C-alpha cells in the first residue's frame, strides 16, 4: 500500500512538472553554441575566470559584460527541434549586453570534475543554446539545472599587433614612393 502511494505521488509530480514545460524553436536561438573549453576552477572569482577566458581566446584581456549569479531553473527551455539542446534567454539577465562568448559555471560538488565551460555565442546573441549531454561527456556527473551557479558573458578586447601596423605603414610608404617616382 505504501509503495502504491509512493508511486502515485511520483507519477503526479512528473505530470505536474511536464505540464509546465516550455519549448523554444531553433529558429529563435539560431544554432547550437560552440563549446570552446572547460576546466575545474579552484577559484571562481571574476579575475580568475576572466584570465582563463582571455587565455583560451588568445587575447590580452576580456571585458565582463553581464553576470547572473543565480539563473532560474525555469529559464532553461528545451529546443523543440532538437531534444538534447536547451536554451537560456540571456536578454532577461539584468545588465545584459550582447556578447560573443559566455561561460556556464556548474556547482558540481566534486573537485575532480570540470565546472566552468566557455562557449562561443553563435546565431542569436540573445540566447545561450547548449547541449549539456556533450558538455558533460566522460565526467560521470548527475546534472540538473539547479546546479548552474552562474552564466557570465564576455567580450574579447583585441589589442592590435605592432607587426600588423608596421606592415600597413610599409605598404603605404611603398605606394607613396611609387607615386613620387611616376611623377618624376
> What structural class do you assign from the helix and strand content?
alpha+beta
Give the low-pLDDT segments: 17-22
| Number of individual domains | 1
Give the mean pLDDT: 70
Largest sheet features: 5 strands, antiparallel
Word description of this protein:
By secondary structure, the protein is of the alpha+beta class. It has one domain. The protein has helices at 2-19, 26-29, 46-57, 132-135, 162-183; strands at 23-24, 34-39, 61-68, 76-79, 85-89, 101-106, 116-120, 127-131, 148-157. The strands form 2 sheets. Strands 2-7-6-9-3 form a 5-stranded antiparallel beta sheet. Strand 4 and strand 5 (85-89) form a beta hairpin. It is elongated. The chain starts with a helix and ends with a helix. 21% of the residues are buried. Residues 1-23 form the signal peptide. Keywords: Signal.
Keywords:
5 helices; 184 residues; alpha+beta; four-stranded mixed β-sheet; five-stranded antiparallel β-sheet
Strand and helix map with partners:
Layout: H1 2-19, E1 23-24, H2 26-29, E2 34-39, H3 46-57, E3 61-68, E4 76-79, E5 85-89, E6 101-106, E7 116-120, E8 127-131, H4 132-135, E9 148-157, H5 162-183
Parallel strand pairs: 1-4
Antiparallel strand pairs: 2-7, 3-9, 4-5, 5-8, 6-7, 6-9
Short description:
The chain has 184 residues and is of the alpha+beta class. The protein is 33% helix and 28% strand.
Amino acid at each position: 500500500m505504501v509503495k502504491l502511494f509512493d508511486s502515485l505521488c511520483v507519477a503526479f509530480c512528473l505530470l505536474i512538472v511536464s505540464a509546465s514545460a516550455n519549448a523554444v524553436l531553433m529558429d529563435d536561438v539560431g544554432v547550437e553554441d560552440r563549446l570552446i573549453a572547460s576546466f575545474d576552477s579552484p577559484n571562481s572569482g571574476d579575475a580568475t575566470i576572466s584570465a582563463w577566458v582571455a587565455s583560451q581566446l588568445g587575447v590580452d584581456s576580456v571585458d565582463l559584460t553581464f553576470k547572473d549569479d543565480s539563473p532560474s531553473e525555469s529559464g532553461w527551455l528545451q529546443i523543440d527541434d532538437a531534444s538534447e539542446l536547451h536554451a537560456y534567454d540571456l536578454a532577461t539577465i539584468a545588465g545584459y549586453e550582447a556578447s560573443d562568448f559566455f561561460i556556464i559555471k556548474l556547482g558540481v560538488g566534486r573537485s575532480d570534475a570540470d565546472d566552468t565551460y566557455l562557449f562561443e555565442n553563435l546565431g542569436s546573441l540573445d540566447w545561450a543554446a547548449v547541449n549539456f549531454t556533450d558538455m558533460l561527456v566522460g565526467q560521470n556527473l548527475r546534472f540538473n539545472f539547479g546546479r548552474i551557479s552562474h552564466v557570465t558573458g564576455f567580450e574579447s578586447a583585441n589589442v592590435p599587433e605592432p607587426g600588423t601596423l608596421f606592415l600597413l605603414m610599409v605598404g603605404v610608404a611603398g605606394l607613396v614612393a611609387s607615386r613620387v617616382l611616376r611623377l618624376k
